[in-house]
Amino acid sequence: MYNVEPIEPMKNIDFGATGVDEILQNVAFIMDSEIMSCPLDREFGWDKTLIDKPIDLAKARIIANLTAAIHKFEPRALIESIEVTGEMLGSLKPKVMVSVNESV
């Protein structure tokens, strides 16, 4: 299993990544991409609009939205768990644990 966190857009991207490294990088890029933010693929990413939602609802939506996006855009990553950390007055930060199925 691998722990994946978002990466800053266009930083530390290995354009020649293959295998497990490619899959993990793709998951990290999905985690950092808000839906409608990619000009040539407006569906890419996940819905981050959680303003003014109760903390428990926001965490549940983050998990659901990220799960759907990762399944859609990187089916080789099998989600083992998603942990959302943070406080009510701060920002919520997801951490995703995935295993990799390279045969998909």
Report on this model:
The protein is an alpha+beta fold. The protein has one domain (2-100): Nuclear Transport Factor 2, Chain: A. Helix content is 32%, strand content 19%. The protein contains two helices and three strands. Helix 1 crosses helix 2 (55-73). The longest helix is centred in the middle third of the chain and has 19 residues, at 55-73. The radius of gyration is 14 Å and the shape is globular.
CATH architecture descriptor: Roll
Distance between the termini: 17 Å
* Spatial arrangement of strands, main beta sheet: 1-3-2
Query: What sort of overall outline do the alpha carbons produce when their principal axes are compared?
Result: globular
Mean pLDDT: 85
Number of domains: 1
